[in-house]
Automatic annotation (TrEMBL):
NAD(+) binds at residues 42-46, 91-92, 125, 148, 184, 306, 330. Belongs to the NAD-dependent DNA ligase family. LigA subfamily. It is an enzyme of class 6 (ligase). Its cofactor is Mg(2+); Mn(2+). SUPFAM superfamilies: BRCT domain, DNA ligase/mRNA capping enzyme, catalytic domain, Nucleic acid-binding proteins, RuvA domain 2-like. The lineage of its organism: Bacteria, Pseudomonadati, Pseudomonadota, Alphaproteobacteria, Sphingomonadales. It catalyses: NAD(+) + (deoxyribonucleotide)n-3'-hydroxyl + 5'-phospho-(deoxyribonucleotide)m = (deoxyribonucleotide)n+m + AMP + beta-nicotinamide D-nucleotide. Zn(2+) binds at residues 422, 425, 446. DNA ligase that catalyzes the formation of phosphodiester linkages between 5'-phosphoryl and 3'-hydroxyl groups in double-stranded DNA using NAD as a coenzyme and as the energy source for the reaction. It is essential for DNA replication and repair of damaged DNA. Keywords: DNA damage, DNA repair, DNA replication, Ligase, Magnesium, Manganese, Metal-binding, NAD, Zinc. GO terms for biological process: DNA repair; DNA replication. This is DNA ligase. The active site is at 127 (n6-amp-lysine intermediate).
Length: 711
């Protein structure tokens, strides 16, 4: 996030930056409010918003109609019903420095034309980090709950809200006939940690990667905005009231009086709510709340001031996205110093390597922090951190904290060097020109990536082994039945049958489905290996270019030799070396129509001994068929065909090979995905199934006609 601090010099530059900021902020709004999964910290987000505001202040003529300064939140998500608010739900203007609070009160005085000695009493209370929710009561009954949405239209979360114990179902007798209570739905810090731990444990049980919420605010939002309210019921949500929307009568003349009424009606309101008659008193409340911030059971990110007198609030009204009578005075990000003990590398499911700082445990804002993200290796270089350094750590609305600064840059320690190896499997790590992320090249053997790769291997567009899906792959992997693609072909009927009660038939079918894939066309074979950048189309291009596994293998062997024998020159920076090596390689392999990054990925894969072992092992189980008639096309190209019954003029295998040469996908069983069934004498259940599904059935002669009609 490098936003220049000087304002743009020209109108053109300003307009361009405003356009860029509008797009960037909209993107982050969507991630945050819509997906409950922000990518950047709140501090970084706030910096973008302030930059936008500063440029708009200097160039008011350039304020865009879609300016972020005019918008609240994000449009409601599609999975919940949308309902318009009776009164808009606004946001709050932000202040970071004490002077901005003084200015806020001065502005109010000017607007209301108050004399300098007139008291402008403010209320002050914590700004809870949750999501706002409006609860509508009619004749005492809770009839509807809405999220803020974009301020005008919210999402209906009535059923979800009914699962929250803090929220009264009814107002006591004597309450106004119509009353909308507004407040925050939030999750306590401890509940949040327990929820993430529970999600992790549940995911581990089924061998999946856990969905983890970045912070309590996202957890609260993600839990409330569920289509299925029983999921919400399972999540420890809480509520704190701080305002109101449409009402048939207001129970008081001041903010403090209405809040007291809300408390009286049974709504939780903040214990730290206070009234201040001067700016200094308000700032004193701010400091008092800041001092206990870390000890509160929930996250807060500032203090909210509101003009206490409601007649003044009414006169002040709303400007743009926020009321003129309210202000959010934000706290700085919570920071602490600690030691960096080690830099570990985590391997993601797709092989991306992320460095993580292991820290001497330290309390930051009431949360014990032991890790911080370092994002990537460029970030390590930028910070200049090495194990042993003292570092400044910050938590800004995010649970994964960041390292802000190295406090001991001059200590006599060598710089951190990454050894270019995947810590999970020892394979070489590599990154492409222009990318910051290193990836493990040991896809097929890397434990961090195996399940993902094995699932890909059997998937429909790869080997397409019917009946063998992600769930079974995961189960087989966890039980030690399979670790590599070749293992799938070594599964025995006995082994499988033992897994299920009466599992004989199932096991037999599965083994047969696997056996049917022992012949595999080169393009499918290539695609099934899950090499980065080698998707279906590229695999087909490669297969068409090299035609046989043999020719492709020969090219790879010579390229790999070059790859291994090219060494960095003394003092040559890594990036330069990689570039130079790539140029040599690209010259060696014929990349016409394929592109250098594919060449790079292919060679990186082949250069890894482990990968070659996996492929050789696999080649003992399967036969890769050459691409011979790759230019032939016919009406059946790209279709899924099933052969059944006895074929008279050729063997089943020959028919299959011939079909595959036409780009036909030959399947062993009839399903909705089948396009055509070729039936010979003696065809039984498959034929029946085809008739049931209304699939076209032809005989061998019909097939021969199609095959003969190739152009
Ligand atoms: N990290 C990201 O990508 C990202 C993206 C978008 C927004 N954000 C964060 O979201 C926030 C901006 O969103 P916003 O428009 O909701 O503004 P806001 O959260 O700063 O302030 C407005 C909201 O504060 C809430 N609030 C909490 N306590 C309150 C109280 N006592 N009285 C009144 N209101 C109270 C209300 O729900 C109100 O809608 C910022 O903190 C921003 O950093 C982050
Ligand atoms: Zn690895």
């Amino acid at each position: 996030m490098t936003t220049p601090s000087a304002l743009p010099a020209t109108e053109d530059a300003a307009a361009a930056e405003l356009a860029r900021l509008a797009a960037e902020i909209a993107h982050h709004n969507h991630l945050y409010h819509h997906d409950d999964a922000p990518e950047i910290s709140d501090a970084d987000y706030d910096a973008l918003v302030r930059r936008n505001a500063a440029i708009e202040a200097a160039f008011p003529q350039l304020i865009r109609t879609d300016s972020p300064s005019r918008q609240v939140g994000a449009a409601p998500a599609g999975h919940l019903a949308k309902v318009a608010h009776a009164r808009p739900m606004t946001s709050l203007d932000n202040a970071f420095a004490d002077e901005e609070v003084t200015e806020f009160v001065d502005r109010i005085r000017r607007f209301l034309r108050l004399s300098a000695d007139e008291v402008v009493a403010l209320t002050a209370e914590p700004k809870i980090d949750g999501l706002s929710c409006s609860l509508r009561y009619e004749r005492g009954a809770l009839v509807r709950a809405l999220t803020r949405g974009d301020g005008q239209v919210g999402e209906d979360v009535t059923a979800n809200v009914l699962t929250i114990d803090d929220i009264p179902r009814r107002l006591p007798a004597g309450a106004p006939a119509i009353f909308e209570v507004r407040g925050e739905v939030y999750m306590a810090k401890a509940d949040f940690a327990a929820l993430n731990a529970r999600l992790a444990a549940e995911a581990a049980e089924v061998g999946k990667e856990a969905r983890q919420f970045a912070n309590p605010r996202n957890a609260a939002a993600g839990s409330l905005r569920q289509k299925d309210a029983s999921v919400t019921a399972d999540r420890p949500l809480r509520f704190l009231a701080h305002g109101w929307g449409e009402t048939s009568a207001v129970p008081g003349d001041t903010q403090a009086e209405v809040v007291a009424a809300l408390r009286h009606w049974g709504f939780p309101v903040s214990d730290l709510f206070a009234r201040a008659e001067t700016v200094n008193d308000a700032l004193a409340v701010y400091r008092r709340i800041e001092a206990v911030r870390a000890d509160l059971p929930f996250d807060i990110d500032g203090v909210v001031y509101k003009v206490d007198r409601l007649d003044w609030q009414a006169r002040l009204g709303i400007v743009g996205r926020a009321p003129r009578w309210g202000l959010a005075h934000k706290f700085p990000a919570e920071r602490a110093q600690t030691s960096l003990q080690a830099i570990d590398i985590q391997v993601g499911r797709t092989g991306a390597l992320t460095p993580v700082a292991r820290l001497e445990p330290v309390t930051v804002g009431g949360v014990v922090v032991t890790n911080a993200t370092l994002h990537n290796f460029d970030e390590i270089a930028r910070l200049g951190v090495r194990p042993g350094d003292r570092v400044l750590v910050q938590r800004a609305g995010d649970v994964i904290p960041q390292i802000v600064e190295n406090l001991t840059p001059d200590a006599d320690r060598p710089p951190y060097v990454f050894d270019w190896l995947c810590p999970a499997c020892g394979s070489a790590a590599d990154r492409e020109e222009g990318e910051v992320v290193y990836r493990c090249t040991g896809g097929l053997i890397c434990p961090a990536q195996r399940v993902e790769r094995l699932s890909h291997f059997v998937s429909r567009h790869a080997l397409d082994i019917g009946g063998l899906g992600q769930t079974l792959i995961e189960a087989f992997f966890h039980d030690g039945l399979i670790a590599s693609p070749a293992d799938i072909f070594r599964l025995s009927e006995e082994q499988l049958a033992a897994r299920k009660k009466d599992g004989r038939v199932w096991a037999g079918n599965l083994v047969r489905a696997i056996d049917e894939r022992r012949r595999v066309p080169l393009d499918r074979f290539l695609f099934s290996l899950g090499i980065r950048h080698i998707g279906e189309v590229t695999a087909r291009d490669l297969a068409r270019r090299y035609r046989s596994a043999r020719a492709l293998g020969a090219m790879l062997r010579s390229a790999v030799h070059l790859f291994r024998t090219t060494q960095p020159q003394i003092g040559e920076p890594e990036r330069k070396f990689v570039l130079r090596r790539d140029r040599l390689l690209v010259a060696r392999i014929d990349t016409a129509g394929i592109g250098p990054e594919v060449g790079h990925a292919l060679i990186g894969f082949a250069a890894e001994r482990h990968n070659r072992d996996v492929v050789y092992d696999l080649l003992r189980q399967v036969t890769v068929t050459d691409v011979v008639h790759e230019t032939r096309t016919s009406e059946v190209s790209g279709k899924t065909v099933v052969f059944t019954g006895t074929l008279e003029t050729m063997s089943r295998d020959e028919a299959k090979t011939q079909a595959e040469s036409l780009g036909v996908h030959v399947s062993g069983s009839v399903s909705k995905k089948t396009d055509l069934v070729v039936a010979g004498p003696g065809a039984g259940s498959k034929l029946k199934k085809a008739a049931e599904l209304g699939i076209r059935v032809i005989d061998e002669a019909g097939w021969a006609a199609i095959v003969g009609a190739v152009d």
